[in-house]
Amino acid sequence: MAMKLVLATLNRGKIKELRELLMDLDIEVLSIADASTTKFVVVEDGVTFAENASKKSRAAAELTRLLSLADDSGLEVDALGGAPGVWSARFAGEHATDEENNAALVDALKSKTDLRARYRCALSLFDPATNRESIVEATCEGRITLTPRGVGGFGYDPYFIVDGCERTMAELNADEKNSLSHRAKALAQIQPKIAGIIESARAGSGT
Question: Under 8 Å CB-to-CB from 29, ≥6 apart: which residues?
Answer without folding.
Answer: 4, 5, 7, 18, 19, 22
